[in-house]
Amino acid sequence: MIYLSLFSLTIFLGLFVDKKNHFFKLSWNLLFFLYLFIIGLSYKLGVDSNLYNQEFNKLKNLSIDQLIERNISNEFIWYFLSWLSIKFNFDFILIQFFCISVFIYSIFRFANKFSNPWIIIVFSFYFIIVFGINYPRQIITIGFFILIIDHILNTNRINKTKIILLLFLSIGIHTSAIILVPLTLFILLIYSNQKKAILKMIIILLILLIPVIIILHNTITSQLRVYLFEGIFAHASQGASIRIFSYLLPLLLLLLFFFKSISIQDKLFFLFFSSLLFLLLLLTFSFSTFADRVALYCIPAYLLGTTKLYEKCKNKIDNILFYLFSSIYVLIYFFTWYSLSHHATYWHNYKNLFFL
What we know:
Distance between the termini: 17 Å
Number of helices: 18
Low-confidence stretches: none
Number of domains: 2
Shape: globular
Order of helices and strands: HHHHHHHHHHHHHHHHHH
């Protein structure tokens, strides 16, 4: 099976090729391009594949004026990229590849900043396979959010233009990404020392957000209506509570067992995201779809929490055991979904654009 082979290779490289190894760079780049090839170029997989292709085909006969008229208040950047792809005679798979590529790139870039980057790839496996294939719009916005967090945590000088650009690209691709604005500002406030720069950014974002909210008002209200309605009556997001609890678990473990040894910034970060996830967990009983969609934006916190837990291991044996048990946990989690979820059948017959 293609997914098991990819995961096995990830585990193997993590066990035998650390960052000090001469083959690390080669192995790291090889795995990156394998994920791009296998997942990025997957063909007509996922529950929503036909729906996305139908929406894509509706744009074929539109002029740029018609596109603007119909979609200026409805995630225009997404529809413009799709329309542009059509004009260059590309299929929807190009847009899918672009979205998955951004997500995979953001994960690999973020992971490579830590002592053992393989652990983040292991914990990202389920997201890359399941969400990467089925949620191209939201997965690219999560990728942008990971790039924002990576920038905030690993630079001494905040690039306001870069952050604002990534935020507005996200909102223009998926309206739900408007939640990234307060999340980003919160992370900036706790991790950055540039308080004046942050204050300026808040003012700029508020000024820019007012017309955006006005333009996207109908889209925002309609999406909320759909998500809440589905959550109450259709129970569309099956397994939402399990997924959200799995995001919450490493954050709780970190706070319960290592609260005194983490920085004040990390304490605030993980307390905030664990509180948010706990609230979303409660909401799954009535608003499962809404809670499930919002929880996706907590994936970067989940990944950061898992690697922080790994770094608390005191010796190499503990590191290896943590890595192995984490791999087993992810493997069980993924194949439980793959075997029991009725939606998972849309992933069973793997196809690749190069092997049709």
